[in-house]
Amino acid sequence: MSEQQGRGTATTLAPMVEVEDVWRSFGSGPTAVHALRGVSFAVGRGELTALRGRSGSGKTTLLNLVGGLDAPTSGRITLDGADLAALDEAGRLALRRDRIGFVFQSFGLIPILSAAENVGVPMRLRKVPAEQRDERVAALLNLVGLAEHTQQRPTEMSGGQQQRVAIARALANEPALIIADEPTGQLDSETGRSVMELLREVVRSEGVTVLVATHDPQLMELADRVVELRDGHIVE
């Protein structure tokens, strides 16, 4: 159901994500659009899995379902042992806050906040004590290579630096899973590769699982596995 690339050792571990016969349709009857058609795959713990496919293949729809931002029309998704269909809205919100970190193509930083303040936002929402929060922020900005840029605002940073801040923010609450949707889409090839290499390092240093959507073949070589979507189907 997927292409194995290089490492692949994490596939022997208990899955962090299990997607079973998932369909997602929009509308009904003959005009219905079937974005996903019976998708099944798993992501092992501590694994960096790349989800590839052309625009319109269903990548973003699938990421939204795994992240609990949307619900499938049918099928089952389990994340870190939790059946998403069994959670109410409050439960899904808690899962996204505590167990999932999101990285977006557009960075999603708050313009008026410094790099350090942006990284600290998720911990503020969890009411983490200030001293503990400041220590975690400093450690994460150091991890992503921005220890000297803590007080800069997004408008004072390059695209690559902004995406590194976004990755640090995604790690703030020590998530089990990071979901990244085309995180290099607005970056040049060299900067994009450095961001993917950072995600690769995050898997090793933080023990986090990463599911990243990309259409850039140069970036897929850094993944443990590549899963291809085409017209809503997993390609064998």
UniProtKB/TrEMBL annotation:
One of its GO terms (molecular function) is transmembrane transporter activity. Transmembrane segments: none annotated. Residues 17-236 form the ABC transporter domain. The keyword Ribosomal protein does not apply. Signal peptide: none annotated. InterPro entries: AAA+_ATPase, ABC_transporter-like_ATP-bd, ABC_transporter-like_CS, ABC_transpr_LolD-like, MacB-like_ATP-bd, P-loop_NTPase. This is ABC transporter. It comes from Streptomyces tateyamensis.
